[in-house]
Amino acid sequence: MSKKISVSKRAVVFSKTGGLCAYCGIQLDPEIFAIDHVHPRLHGGTNDIQNLLPCCHSCNSSKGTKGLEEFRIYVAARAVAGPLFSLAQINYLRAEGAFPLLGFNENHTFQFERQCAVAA
User: What UniProt keywords apply to this chain's record, in alphabetical order (predicted)?
Assistant: First the structure.
């Protein structure tokens, strides 16, 4: 599978969220935005348009090879605690039921999900 995504496919991906980062919602530059694989390539994800979302470099870097739900809990924890906890610690806290006690929102919604809800 080629790593390179064509210019035409990049334009389609960019338009999926109206030029906003699919995760945090900031306005993207159409020339330098990142493309995220919702299902990471490392875990079998493809370059199919359905698996691609436009995002800022910060969100793309933070998501890395995390799946969508793993990234969701990571963002929820970071929003409250900053870089205090590692991903392993965040997963442990969630498994132990500590998220509500710490004020972590397990139901954090990403920009693309909010856009889908409005469109529905």
Answer: Endonuclease, Hydrolase, Nuclease
Reported as a single tens digit per residue, the pLDDT across 10-25 is 999 999 999 999 999 9
* CATH architecture assignment, domain 7-119: Orthogonal Bundle (1.10)
- CB-based contact 73:94 (threshold 8 Å): yes
Spell out the domain ranges in the chain.
7-119
Measured CA angle at 77 (ends 72, 82), to 5 deg: 125
